[in-house]
Amino acid sequence: MSGDGPFERDEDLRKLLRPGARTTPEHDDAVLAAARTFTDETPVVRPSRRRRLRLVIPLAVLVGLAAITVGLYARFGGPLKDGSPLRSLSNAPSEAITPANGTVLSEPPAQFHWPAQAGAKAYRVILRDASAEVVWRSDAVRVNRASLDARHAATLATRTYYWSVEVDGAATTRQLGPFWFRVE
Amino acid sequence: MNAADTDDDLMDRFQRERDYAAFESLFHRHKNLLLCFLFRLLRDLSTAHDASQQAWLKVIEVARKGSYVVRSGVTFRTWLFTLARNHVIDEYQRKFSATKTVALTDELRDEFLDRDSDTDPVCADPADHAHHQQLVQRLNEAVLRLPLKQREVIALWAADHDSRAIANITGAPSDTVQSRRKYALAKLREALRDLLAEDEQT
Predict the structure, then answer these.
(1) CA B54 – CA B178 distance, rounded (Å)
(2) Cβ contact (<8 Å) for B24 and A32?
(3) What is the pLDDT, as a whole number, of residue A155?
(4) Is B44 left (phi over 0), alpha (psi -120 to 50) or beta?
(5) How many independent structural domains does chain B possess?
(6) pLDDT score, position B30
(7) Are residues B68 and B79 in the same domain?
(8) A52 in contact with B, Cβ within 8 Å
């Protein structure tokens, strides 16, 4: 803005507005004392970004491996000891499962039954002993049940067994279980 | 401390090397401008001092955390004023409406308008000086009567911030800043009209 009269120009007004205010000594002392406290502090030695990464990455790898291990154990049972509690979460309701999870049986089960899974093309039952050795694997079946033949049933000793069902979908295979039962 | 040191250099030294002198230099460069801005915003010198102190303590806290970073297009001064303004908005917003009009008391005027006459060529002649002081007083009172949004733009502009920096600090678009400044300056000229008319007669 420009003009002939006084203060027609914005800059003239700005000059008038230029501050004359001054901070008080109390204000200055308080701020400078706080600054002094900071500068007198012993600096906290923070590891450099590279050093932090050097520490964090191996830790993250370890945590990842641990998570994978736990996941695998949860999914496949792992080398469980005889009589040990089930260490995985079942993703099927136990009432729809035969033999029911955690059942104690007087003889090996003749049949396995599980909830039908949407989109399933075929099922396969896998029976393992407590050391995770596969003791029986059913043929692929299209229905949600499978029979344990007498020949294999006769080989089962009085111990704990873990069974799971492989569910073949259109593109993926997933697993139900493992569930456990004990033959006494 | 080298006068050529930029604000960012000083802040960097304060943060990284805990250089007290760097902070002291930075503080003395900006403390009065910041106080003036806060006074115009808050219209109360004591509260402005408090807000200014809080803003500087925040600067120290940021340095302690090592979190001050130089950003392209944002000067230390812009950052400092933004920090102070945000603090004011958070802490003192309710007080804005409590003090609708403010006349500068003699004491406040002496304190607030305590300008160095040797740095102000308008003040060379005693008669001119009195007239000049009257203008300054009238102008500052008029600033304090502006609506908050115009007042903060004028206060920042008076503290030598350009439109871009003002837009950064206030979070308003540049066009809005220009418009607020335009309306505010019109009101300030209106407040000075009779004094300026006297000038023209003499």
Answers:
(1) 29
(2) yes
(3) 84
(4) beta
(5) 2
(6) 93
(7) yes
(8) no
Confidence of residue B1 (pLDDT cuts 50, 70, 90): low
**Residue contact A38–B60, C-beta within 8 A:** yes
A80-89, A136-145, B87-96: lowest mean pLDDT where? A80-89
Distance CA(B184)–CA(A73), nearest Å, equals: 73
Q: At what angle do helices B126-145 and B174-201 cross, to 10 degrees?
A: 140
Kindly state whether B41 is in contact with chain A, defined as any CB-CB distance less than 8 angstroms: no
Q: Is B60 on the interface with A (CB under 8 A)?
A: yes
Give the residue-averaged pLDDT of B26-46.
89
The CATH number of whichever domain residue A168 belongs to comes to 2.60.40.1220
| Residues A39, B23: C-beta atoms closer than 8 Å | yes
pTM exceeds cut of 0.90 = no
Label the pairing between strands A111-113 and A145-147: antiparallel
Of residues A31 and A70, more confidently modeled: A31
Contact A31 B199 (CB under 8 A): no
Which parts of A58-172 are beta strand (E)? 103-105, 111-113, 122-129, 134-137, 145-147, 160-168
Q: Which domain holds residue B36?
A: 1-100
Tell the residue number behind the tokens 């964090």, with chain if given: A56
Quote the CA–CA distance of B42 and A105 in Å, as a whole number. Answer: 83
pLDDT tops 80 at residue B111: no
Report the complex ipTM: 0.75
**If you count residue pairs, one on A and one on B, with CB atoms under 8 Å apart, how many are there?**
103
CB atoms within 10 A of CB A51: 10
What is the chain B residue with the closest CA to A1? B182
Which chain A residues contact residue B143 at CB under 8 A?
17
Residues B202 and B113 placed together within one structural domain of the fold? yes
Nearest chain A residue (CA) to B31: A23
The mean pLDDT value for B135-154 works out to 87
Q: For residue A134, give its domain range.
A: 94-183
Question: What pLDDT shows up at residue B129?
Answer: 64
Domain co-membership, B94 together with B129: no
Do the Cβ atoms of A27 and B53 come closer than 8 Å?
yes
